[in-house]
């Protein structure tokens, strides 16, 4: 073992190896005797393909299964048991059908976007979004499979339509009714999503009592189950249905101090699935995830499987289930689990990580000014290197986006890229994060730019106070809403010696004017509605106070970002340049909200490492 300064340790984790590491799984299905899954391909600019357990690529280039409904998409592909693939292509958002013999048929007309695809008994459901109308319209639709709607949009059967938002459509077993979740424009789904039911052949939807509902599923023609808030947690609920009329009130099913569900950002998430014998397989989140089987009497048992973060219950067949997600001791992946025998088969990814290079993260809790702050710490780890006895490691404090989201302490090559070089990582679930209950999530209501900043500063200083981190070499890095917290923390000053903002929010009034429909009123709950709260929009925006930023800043931005447009990063860039503050601005012209292509992932990581080396005075080795 050799002794070298923190940050300069040689590492096998190159930026290129990070870009080529664990697959990003996008849904999975049982198809005949095969298992199919969606997977992003960074080397093909992030194209999402569909692969088979036989080794075949089901969706060949240049097709790219990616939806832009609600901008974040999800549910861009599905398949039936005969091996027919249905997918939304990123280029035009039309739905297409690809048969096993290679016959390709376009199913929807040009114009609207589609997502949340679901095939049941030979019928195809989708969420449709049309931004060409005034006002913009969204709908739950049934798409005919014969291609008749490709030229005649009226051939599509509209089950419900409106100016609000829809997700998670599902037919009843007899096919006569559909259920879904809906919420009004001006609200976010975790604030007001309701379960609705309607006859497929017409009739007004009936709303089931619910407050922040997710994923309705039919247990039978007369009973629904869905996730909803009960007290402080998302919990499964059952309700009897007489036609489309609820009978009584929803009944919580096996409530616990954990969440089955979280923020409905994308359309393809599945937090539970009914099993064929009446039991339910569900994900429970309290920081990390457990997977449990709930029996018909409400009893439960934990399923042993290596994933414990952002687990999705993608499909069920008999006693076998497909689970995708990440883990604290394994790489992200897709597993087939037999819940009776206990057999666990890694279908894609899921390899155990080497604990010498990637020790399990430490779950920590730090007292902050608004209560406990949850975070995961990843100390430096390299079996061949150690640092001088008198040196403490630099740390990068990570701030997730959303802000209504959470991190799970997962192992990843992206984390090891830093820790193997002698740079610690602290991943913070600040107040407002999901996974710790409603009260923790609502801590941020009206306090965005205050609570999140207080919490990340408290977490960073708390870690340094334990002697695990160098208090003079703390950097902060985040994207989107996390980028806002980065810039806001730099404005606050005193805690961080550098900041890295990826497509971060810089000015709230600009964001309110430019952002997309889905988040058009998000800031109303996080700060307050305009115009009466305009003074807070001005006061809390980092762009208002760039004169207080005194440390180096790295700004990374996608040129095609429609959620946080380049104007936000460029406004900060111009303000820093005017004041002569050290900064670097990099625009990736073809990237959107989040970096997907290998070239961008490699370049951004290499730039971040070089930036930290300059600021903290170490020399990264190739």
Automatic annotation (TrEMBL):
Protein's GO biological process: proteolysis
Span of domain Peptidase S9 prolyl oligopeptidase catalytic: 413-617
Pfam families reported for this sequence: Peptidase_S9
GO molecular function, one term: serine-type peptidase activity
Protein name: Peptidase S9 prolyl oligopeptidase catalytic domain-containing protein
């Amino acid at each position: 073992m050799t002794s070298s300064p923190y940050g300069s340790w040689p590492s096998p984790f190159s930026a290129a190896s990070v870009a080529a590491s664990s697959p990003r799984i996008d849904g999975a299905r049982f198809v005949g005797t095969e298992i199919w899954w969606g997977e992003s391909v960074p080397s093909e600019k992030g194209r999402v393909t569909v692969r088979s357990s036989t080794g075949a690529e089901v969706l060949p280039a240049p097709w790219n299964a990616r939806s832009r409904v609600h901008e974040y998409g999800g549910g861009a592909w599905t398949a039936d048991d005969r091996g027919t693939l249905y997918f939304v292509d990123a280029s035009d958002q039309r739905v297409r059908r690809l048969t096993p013999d290679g016959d390709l048929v376009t199913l929807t007309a040009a114009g609207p976007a589609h997502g949340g695809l679901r095939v049941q008994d030979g019928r195809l459901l989708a969420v449709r979004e049309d931004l060409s109308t005034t006002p913009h319209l969204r709908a739950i639709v049934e798409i005919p499979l014969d291609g008749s709607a490709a030229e005649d949009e009226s051939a599509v059967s509209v089950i419900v339509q409106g100016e609000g938002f829809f997700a998670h459509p599902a037919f009843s077993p007899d096919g006569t009714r559909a259920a879904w979740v809906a919420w009004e424009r001006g609200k976010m789904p975790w604030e007001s999503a309701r379960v609705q039911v309607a006859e497929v052949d017409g009739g007004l939807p009936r709303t089931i009592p619910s407050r922040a509902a997710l994923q309705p599923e039919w247990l039978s023609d007369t009973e629904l189950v869905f996730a909803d808030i009960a007290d402080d947690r998302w919990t499964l609920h059952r309700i009897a249905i007489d036609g489309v009329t609820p009978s009584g009130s929803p009944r919580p099913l096996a409530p616990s101090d954990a969440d089955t569900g979280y923020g409905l950002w994308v359309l393809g998430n599945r937090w539970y699935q009914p099993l064929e014998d009446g039991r339910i397989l569900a994900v429970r989140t309290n920081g990390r995830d457990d997977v449990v089987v709930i029996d018909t009497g409400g009893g439960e048992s934990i399923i042993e499987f290596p994933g414990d973060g952002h687990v999705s219950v993608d499909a069920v067949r008999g006693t076998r289930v497909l689970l995708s997600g990440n883990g604290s001791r394994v790489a992200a992946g897709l597993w087939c689990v037999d819940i009776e025998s206990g057999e666990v088969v890694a279908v894609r990814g899921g390899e155990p990580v080497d604990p010498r290079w990637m020790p399990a993260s430490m779950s920590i809790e730090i007292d902050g000014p608004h209560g406990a702050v949850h975070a995961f710490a990843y100390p430096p780890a390299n079996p061949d290197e150690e640092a001088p006895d008198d040196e403490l490691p630099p740390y990068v404090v990570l701030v997730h986006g959303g802000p209504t989201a959470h991190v799970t302490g997962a192992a990843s090559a992206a984390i090891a890229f830093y820790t193997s070089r002698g740079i610690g990582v602290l991943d913070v679930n600040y107040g407002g994060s999901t996974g710790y209950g409603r009260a923790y999530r609502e801590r941020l209501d009206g306090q965005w730019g205050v609570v999140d900043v207080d919490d990340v500063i408290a977490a960073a200083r708390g870690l340094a106070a334990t002697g695990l981190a160098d208090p003079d070499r703390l950097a902060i890095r985040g994207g989107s809403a996390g980028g806002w917290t980065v810039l806001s923390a730099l404005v606050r000053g005193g805690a961080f010696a550098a900041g890295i903002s990826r497509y971060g929010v810089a000015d709230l009034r600009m964001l309110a004017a430019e952002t997309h429909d889905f988040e058009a009123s998000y800031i109303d709950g996080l700060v307050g509605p305009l115009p009466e709260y305009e003074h807070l929009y001005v006061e809390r925006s980092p762009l208002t106070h760039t004169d207080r930023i005194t440390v180096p800043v790295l700004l990374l931005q996608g040129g095609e970002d429609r959620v946080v447009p380049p104007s936000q990063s460029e406004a900060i860039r111009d303000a820093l340049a005017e004041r002569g503050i050290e900064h670097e601005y990099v625009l990736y012209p073809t990237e959107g909200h989040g970096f997907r292509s290998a070239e961008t992932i490699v370049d951004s990581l290499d730039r971040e490492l070089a930036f930290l080396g300059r600021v903290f005075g170490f020399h990264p080795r190739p």
